Amino acid sequence: MASTPPLKGSNAGRSRIRNRTAVLGQIYHSGELGRAELARSLDLSVQAVSNIIADLLQDGLLVEKGARSAKRGLPAVQYGIAPTGGFALGIEIRPTVIHAAMLDMLGNTVFTHRSILADAQPDAVIPEVTRLRDLALQSVPDARDRLLGAGIVMPGPFGATGLSGRETDLPNWQDVDPVELFQTALDLPIEVSNDANAAAMAERISGCALGLDSYGYLYFGSGLGLGLVSQGHLIRGAFGNAGEIGHIPVPTPLGSAPLETRLSRMSVQHHLILAGHENIDFETLEALFAKSDPDLMMWLASATDALGHATQIIENIFDPRTIILGGAMPETILHHLVSNVDLHSASVSLRDDNSQPRLQCGTSGRLVATLGAAALILNKRLMPNAVTL
């Protein structure tokens, strides 16, 4: 079975929250809908839909969008998501910096901020995150009483594991419960995730994964991570560490090596520094690609080969509709990788009945994971399949 049908509502056996989320999600995907259309699509009575819409209008989550002529009877009033009906805060914590962003209900970015971190230990991070929340609310006064929650993105893996001790780890967080810590500090519903999972959810809110229920997201952070969405749910694993694909060995001319040593921002930076380049930041990579720098082209040739191995692994283990490539890497480089990769034929994804490409570009830029953190909150409100059943 390729996919499951959208979550239906219920007149009796399902919860009020589930039905509200189903209505919001259906309207979000369609742009605007009337009561009768909603009732038909969700298997709810028109009266049940009318009651839910009345509640959502009162809560400021929906707006009337005018009336549309029907074949019979009076024109049907259409309803849409109210952009300022709710807001979601996104926080991305890195060893030396914190990024913050706020999204409205339609996924529009209404606030961003970047703070340098001198100390990334919990006692230093919490006051700064609290300050950023307050700064966001000062910048967007409408959000003060309509903040739905905060998504927190942190480097994985979570807890002490065989992958601990990397340069991207946050110090002294291994024995801390981040959900409890941030809930206490911010007094908000909290979702904590790694950067790849957050980016995968952002793509589902307002990117090329809109409307898809099963896909993979290869995320360029410092290393390489994998966000996996199956039937609308993130695959987190037993301890929240699913998707650490960067540590899987792949073949190289010198023997096997971890994937992210061939395919990551850290990898290209190390390669270019050894070749004599300096200050390898986002803009430098864009400029080097624009002039077809031979050192960068050499890295890209190796990286596309590694990407081919990675896609074959993901496709044959998880059977996604598509794999999306995105993150903190210039869009031009992502497009080059997607356009030049040799996708293996020995894959379950080589089929004629899938309308999606096997590999495609998603969102790129420095704030992908930060916006994804906020998208974790919106996803719970707007995506019916995200509701815990």
Automatic annotation (TrEMBL):
<dbReference type="Pfam" id="PF12802">
    <property type="entry name" value="MarR_2"/>
</dbReference>
<dbReference type="InterPro" id="IPR043129">
    <property type="entry name" value="ATPase_NBD"/>
</dbReference>
<dbReference type="InterPro" id="IPR036390">
    <property type="entry name" value="WH_DNA-bd_sf"/>
</dbReference>
<dbReference type="Pfam" id="PF00480">
    <property type="entry name" value="ROK"/>
</dbReference>
<protein>
    <submittedName>
        <fullName>ROK family transcriptional regulator</fullName>
    </submittedName>
</protein>
<dbReference type="InterPro" id="IPR000600">
    <property type="entry name" value="ROK"/>
</dbReference>
<keyword id="KW-0614">Plasmid</keyword>
<dbReference type="GO" id="GO:0003700">
    <property type="term" value="F:DNA-binding transcription factor activity"/>
</dbReference>
<dbReference type="InterPro" id="IPR036388">
    <property type="entry name" value="WH-like_DNA-bd_sf"/>
</dbReference>
<comment type="similarity">
    <text>Belongs to the ROK (NagC/XylR) family.</text>
</comment>
<feature type="domain" description="HTH marR-type">
    <location>
        <begin position="21"/>
        <end position="72"/>
    </location>
</feature>
<dbReference type="InterPro" id="IPR000835">
    <property type="entry name" value="HTH_MarR-typ"/>
</dbReference>
